[in-house]
Design goal:
Elements: E1 4-6, H1 38-47, H2 49-52, H3 69-81, H4 86-102, H5 108-122, E2 137-142, H6 149-162, E3 167-172, H7 177-190, E4 194-196, H8 203-217, E5 221-226, H9 234-250, E6 257-263, H10 270-281, E7 285-289, H11 299-307, E8 311-315, E9 323-325, H12 328-335
Parallel strand pairs: 2-5, 2-6, 3-4, 3-5, 6-7, 7-8
Antiparallel strand pairs: 1-4, 8-9
């Protein structure tokens, strides 16, 4: 079958993120990476409002206030309420309490600096999109229904287009006409060309044709939105594996990225479904969406730690520009600001 082209008017395993390294001066807040815009940082801060609010909000911005055992108990509860994993919080708090007992950490400010540094270390990894220089670079988006794959595909296409690339979107969910229509509408909205297959067609063939079309037309990146599937459905997961294999026939070494899109509102519940995807589709990175709609933004740390995959992109709203790259320092500083 031929696809129709439409034109619209991880930390390394040797790293231990739970090791706290206390700084004797400074507040533990490093500047964001070069090229991180003020608008992006503002988007992250706004998206984490619910996570940061309430219990957690009462803990930061308290300057040189004396550290107490009660404050440490409150910090532990706040971190767990924000859905950070127990496997991260337990060793962090144990070390922090030891440092409090020995007198090495005496103020709330220094304690929070230590927490920030530990959380940044938990997110360290190569967050850049792989495949730069490949012609075309190929990115597959995978995940369950409702995780935000389709909107993420369009937002990523816009982001790449705004940076000077020539992206091509691919509607590889041939089983749901509504999914194809949704991506076509988004493609028109962000003014990016799209390849769509026939209803009930072979999604692997659609992606294959799209990669060949991109090569012929000079598109720099192919972004394929695959069908949402439950991690428990073996046949659908096998089909996803086929898409990955066939993509490699269209361009040697493809796909360059297989990004697993996880719904941030699911918190740590998303981790179990993610494990099956990583086994089937050789996932290379994670996108966490809908962070603006949850108080469980801390699950980003659990996802990165449990899956040993870099969180590369964050969905922080419904607008076309509401997809931002992960910057560990900016993310942590938005969660635990240095001032109230």
């Amino acid at each position: 079958m031929r696809a129709a082209i439409m034109r619209n008017a991880r930390p390394s395993k040797n790293q231990n993120p739970s090791v706290i390294r206390i700084k004797t001066n400074g507040n533990g807040a490093n500047s964001t990476r070069e090229g991180y815009t003020g608008a992006e940082q503002m988007s992250i801060e706004q998206a984490l409002t619910k996570t940061r609010g309430g219990f957690l909000a009462r803990l930061f911005g308290r300057g040189e206030e004396k550290l107490t055992a009660e404050w440490l108990d409150s910090l532990e509860e706040a971190l767990l309420r924000a859905d950070l994993s127990v496997s991260l919080v337990d060793p962090l708090m144990a070390q922090l309490r030891d440092l409090f007992t020995t007198g090495e950490v005496k103020s709330v400010q220094k304690a929070l600096a230590a927490v920030r540094e530990t959380l940044v270390a938990a997110l360290v990894g190569d967050t850049r999109l792989r495949g730069e220089g490949q012609q075309p670079r190929v990115i597959l988006l995978v995940g369950v229904n409702g995780s935000g794959k389709t909107t993420t595909a369009a937002k990523l296409a816009k982001r790449l287009k705004d940076s000077g690339e020539r992206p091509l979107l691919v509607a590889a969910d041939t089983f749901r006409a509504a999914a194809t229509l949704q991506l076509e509408q988004w493609a028109q909205r962000v003014d990016v060309p799209i390849v769509s297959g026939k209803p009930e067609g072979d999604p692997a063939a659609v992606v294959f044709d799209a990669v060949n079309a991109a090569t012929a037309r000079g598109n720099t990146t192919v972004i394929a939105d695959t069908a949402g599937r439950l991690h428990t459905k073996g046949q659908l997961m096998d089909e996803l594996g086929k898409i990955v294999r066939v993509t490699g026939r269209a361009r040697a070494g493809a796909p360059d990225e297989v990004l697993l899109v996880l719904d941030g509102t699911a918190g740590q519940n998303a981790i179990q479904q993610a494990r099956r995807f990583t086994a089937t589709a050789a996932v290379t990175g994670v996108v966490v969406t809908k962070l603006d709609g949850t108080a469980k933004g801390g699950s980003v740390f659990a996802i990165a730690q449990e899956l040993r995959l870099p969180v590369k992109l964050l969905g922080v709203g419904e607008k076309a520009d509401d997809l931002v790259p992960m910057d560990p320092t900016a993310f942590v500083n938005a969660l635990l600001p240095t001032s109230a």
